[in-house]
Design goal:
Elements: H1 8-27, H2 33-59, H3 63-72
Helix pairs in contact: 1-2
């Protein structure tokens, strides 16, 4: 996850919750391993996709802002 969006902790903690839920289903023998892992990956990807696309869209436009911020601090 690009640090620009500030979503790394949210993405990581949400993925952990989703994984724990799926592992619980596996351990309760409600589904086999392949099914639970496929469900986890789909849920994780669905949750992350919107933030990923937003980051890809807006992070590319940060170069002028970054240059200006560095120049204002005498670092560029």
């Amino acid at each position: 996850m690009d640090p620009w969006s500030g979503q790394g902790i949210d993405q990581g903690s949400t993925a952990a919750v989703l994984l724990a839920e799926q592992l619980g289903a596996f351990l309760r023998q409600q589904a086999d391993w392949e099914t639970t892992m496929a469900a986890y990956h789909q849920q994780r990807n669905d949750f992350s996709l919107k933030t990923y696309r937003r980051t890809c869209t807006f992070a590319a436009d940060l170069t002028p802002m970054t240059r200006q911020a560095l120049e204002s601090r005498g670092l560029a």
